[in-house]
Write a structure and sequence with these properties.
mainly beta, 6 strands
């Protein structure tokens, strides 16, 4: 059980995850990424895995973005987008789970020294 901390919960205690990060992109003049500078390294784009566009809220604060799922030299995948309103490029990182779960099987860690009941019947 967790004790009552008396701390007020609310939006101020939340932090955004996977915030877009400003990115330097070489696009060859056609709006399609050819290379990026990611974590200080210049990496060429080897494959564009997917592309999509989002245009939204034209009646308020316009959002117009073109997204690309890139494979970079070295095999790293990165999602980037071009903010066509501000004319800036951003990396949109997505965190992967540390280890994928087996389908339909929750991962349970047993205490040290405890064995599976099926092993006891052998």
């Amino acid at each position: 059980m967790v004790s009552y901390s008396r701390a007020t919960a609310g939006p101020s205690s939340l932090r955004p995850l996977n915030q877009p990060q400003l990115l330097s992109v070489e696009d060859g003049g056609d709006g399609v990424p050819k290379a990026v500078v990611w974590h200080g390294d210049h990496r060429g784009v080897t494959v564009i895995r997917d592309t999509w566009r989002i245009d939204d809220e034209w009646w308020r604060d316009e959002i117009s973005r073109r997204y690309f799922l890139l494979e970079l030299e070295g095999g790293h995948q990165l999602t980037v987008y071009h903010d066509m309103v501000a004319d800036h490029w951003y990396a949109q990182p997505y965190e992967k789970p540390a280890r994928p779960l087996a389908a339909g099987k929750p991962r349970v860690q047993k205490p040290a020294g405890e064995s599976d009941s099926s092993e006891q019947t052998k």
